[in-house]
Amino acid sequence: MPPGTNILNTSAINPVKIKLSLVLVLLAILSGCAIRQTVKPVDKFDDKQICIIENTAVRSGFLDAYKRVLTQKGYVVKQLPAGASLIECPITSTYTANWRWDLAIYMSYAEIIVYNNAKPAGQASYDATRGGGNMNKFIDADKKISELVNQLFPGGAGL
Question: What is the CATH classification number for the domain harbouring 76?
């Protein structure tokens, strides 16, 4: 190869395409680290009692926090055993949550569904399963449960 010959044809490299490619790669990486939270609040209902069907596969602290926040909002909480029917009470709720390990244990997923006469009336979910390198996934589970419940039940009992 003669001296001064450029191995790379730099005239063929488009800087705009390189920048666009880098932006797309960064967006793909960051979207893979997304934490999602959605809440569809319940409409006001006259009943002050909420029955929660216990989920024995979930840490007991979740149910304790859920019941505590509802009680603070003026609801009377009745705990039903696992496998109870949605029609045992006019207002019934189910929940699930998962924890993962990544340098520390953290709540990676939570979902609360509220039923009015066995029909879905509201739902709150928190999903950090795609949190990857996002350090915001290391939340205080008790505070997150309180946040979800407060958003799910924006007023108090009878409000």
Answer: 3.30.360
- Measure the CA–CA gap between 123 and 40, rounded to whole angstroms: 5
Q: Are strands 49-53 and 76-80 parallel, antiparallel or unpaired?
A: parallel
Domain annotation covers residue 14 = no
Do 14 and 113 touch, CB atoms closer than 8 A? no
pLDDT in tens, the chain (159 residues): 556 555 555 556 776 766 666 655 554 444 446 768 788 989 888 889 999 999 999 878 889 999 999 999 999 999 999 999 999 999 999 998 887 776 756 567 889 999 999 899 999 998 876 655 544 445 656 687 778 889 998 877 655
Q: What's the CA gap between 32 and 131, in Å, rounded?
A: 7
Say how far apart CA 58 and CA 65 lie, in whole Å: 12
Residue 131 CB coordination number (10 Å): 21
**115 is in which domain, residue-wise?**
36-152
- String of b and e for 61-87 (b: at least 16 CB within 10 Å)? ebbebbbebbeebebebeebeeebebe
Give the tokens for residue 28: 């793909």
